[in-house]
Amino acid sequence: MTSSMNNALEKVKNAIKNVKIIEIDEREAKIEVESENTLPVLSILKGEGYFHLSLLTAVDWMEKNEFELIYILYSWNDGGKFIVSTKIDREKAEFVTVMHMWPVARFYERELHEFFGIKFAGNNDMKPLFLENWDDIPPLRKDFDPLEYSKKKFPEREYQKDIIHEAKIIRGDING
Amino acid sequence: MSASERNIWEKIADQLRSRSMWMLHYCTGCGAIELPPSMTSRFDMERFGMGPMATPRQADLFLITGYLSTKTLRRVIKTYEQMPDPKYVIGFGSCTLNGGIYFDSYATINRLDYYIPVDLYIAGCMPRPEAVIEAFNTLMEMIRKGEANGWKRYKENYEWYKKNQLRSLGEVDIHDEFHE
Ligand code: SF4
């Protein structure tokens, strides 16, 4: 890890107990924090030069009944990248907004609301971002079945089976 | 008059129509990348009297070049209905035929001819310029023979198309900041 990443991590470790740090790469590390400590960690990193929010996204861990929220912060000074991850309850999918730190988060949060059903306190703009007239559970939740939905809503082309042709393939008369 | 019967004026008109095709290419998907080589000097489709056109009201040919999400399909239907008759549709690539690799997606449709009439499909993922040129030639031949009459089918079976559109889209009207 670069020295500026180490410095940033020191600061995080001093300020907050209970962080788990996983080194991924020379310039990439993952920080796992409790949900109540997420915002402090993000703001420390932002102060240390990791102020570019490249991505805010979520992973659905359905068996554990959790959503993992993932913030990726990038530094334009040394190309370092921190992945800050936190777990929230899947049943009560709510978190706090980071719009006051990164205005662009508004759109990431709208997206997460649309595709995972996660609400963000403090962000009142929860209009759908991509989908129109969506009428099912959020489509990126793991309990959503896209094939089933597609069958229900979008009829498929029906092909006529040519049995003789298939029999010839099976018999080896022609190559299938 | 049934869809296949034409009077003499229509036959003459069809000869002329097939020799000046203005094409509106709705580049929905990756397949559209094969259009620039089809248009430029190597394959040069302008030698058939074809060219790209920017607006639906001046276009004869509607090219749908790939996967269609429900959101896009609404715009496609709207665009199709703005085009004046006679109008022709080419479905480009396997996504328009049967959903292609997006057959199980929650947001993309599986077959285009269920929603608007398609005169001709080009199979392939993605079709090469040779296939594209071949399809244009075939379409011109079909127009001359009076076989490319999807626009008539659309009028005759309007209720059927509308029913399918509503079933998959919920509503065909577009509500966004550009259409309100
Ligand atoms: S058929 Fe293939 S090339 Fe064409 S839009 Fe679909 S995936 Fe892309």
From TrEMBL, chain A:
<dbReference type="InterPro" id="IPR037232">
    <property type="entry name" value="NADH_quin_OxRdtase_su_C/D-like"/>
</dbReference>
<feature type="domain" description="NADH:ubiquinone oxidoreductase 30kDa subunit">
    <location>
        <begin position="31"/>
        <end position="147"/>
    </location>
</feature>
<protein>
    <submittedName>
        <fullName>NADH-quinone oxidoreductase subunit C</fullName>
    </submittedName>
</protein>
<dbReference type="Pfam" id="PF00329">
    <property type="entry name" value="Complex1_30kDa"/>
</dbReference>
<comment type="similarity">
    <text>Belongs to the complex I 30 kDa subunit family.</text>
</comment>
<dbReference type="InterPro" id="IPR001268">
    <property type="entry name" value="NADH_UbQ_OxRdtase_30kDa_su"/>
</dbReference>
Automatic annotation (TrEMBL), chain B:
<feature type="domain" description="NADH:ubiquinone oxidoreductase-like 20kDa subunit">
    <location>
        <begin position="27"/>
        <end position="138"/>
    </location>
</feature>
<keyword id="KW-0479">Metal-binding</keyword>
<dbReference type="InterPro" id="IPR006138">
    <property type="entry name" value="NADH_UQ_OxRdtase_20Kd_su"/>
</dbReference>
<keyword id="KW-0004">4Fe-4S</keyword>
<keyword id="KW-0520">NAD</keyword>
<dbReference type="Pfam" id="PF01058">
    <property type="entry name" value="Oxidored_q6"/>
</dbReference>
<protein>
    <submittedName>
        <fullName>NADH-quinone oxidoreductase subunit B</fullName>
    </submittedName>
</protein>
<keyword id="KW-0874">Quinone</keyword>
<keyword id="KW-0408">Iron</keyword>
<comment type="similarity">
    <text>Belongs to the complex I 20 kDa subunit family.</text>
</comment>
<dbReference type="InterPro" id="IPR006137">
    <property type="entry name" value="NADH_UbQ_OxRdtase-like_20kDa"/>
</dbReference>
<keyword id="KW-0411">Iron-sulfur</keyword>
